[in-house]
Amino acid sequence: MSKGTPSFGRHNKTTHIRCRRCGRYSYHKKKEECSKCGFPRARLRKFAWQCKNFFSRNRNR
């Protein structure tokens, strides 16, 4: 199978769904963890090297 346009027809599974905590489509269904905020962990996913504003987007879309 080639790695160009024909292979993109096989990309039809949903890996990420909407996160209950931050509202972004970053909750990985298989890992059961949000890549943005770290849900379901109690602490927010935050590192010293990142400078992001959490919950900046509208959660009720």
Description:
This protein has no helices and 3 strands. Helix content is 0%, strand content 10%. It has a domain of 26 residues: N-terminal domain of TfIIb (Single Sheet). With 61 residues, it is largely without helices or strands. It has a 3-stranded antiparallel β-sheet, with no helix packed on it.
Main attributes of the structure:
little secondary structure, N-terminal domain of TfIIb, 10% strand, elongated, 61 residues, 3 strands
DSSP strand content: 5-15%
Helix fraction, binned, reads under 10%
Number of strands: 3
Q: Tally the helices.
A: 0
Average of the residue pLDDT scores: 86
CATH C-level label of the domain at 14-39: Mainly Beta
Q: Could you say which structural class the secondary elements and strand pairing correspond to?
A: little secondary structure
Q: Output the strand order for the largest sheet.
A: 1-2-3
- Please state the second-level CATH architecture of the domain at 14-39: Single Sheet
Taken in chain order, the helices and strands follow as EEE
Q: Sketch the major β-sheet.
A: 3 strands, antiparallel
N-end to C-end Cα span: 39 Å
Shape: elongated
Whole-angstrom Rg:
15 Å
Q: Which regions have little confidence, pLDDT < 50, spanning 5+ residues?
A: none
CATH topology of the domain at 14-39, which one?
A: N-terminal domain of TfIIb
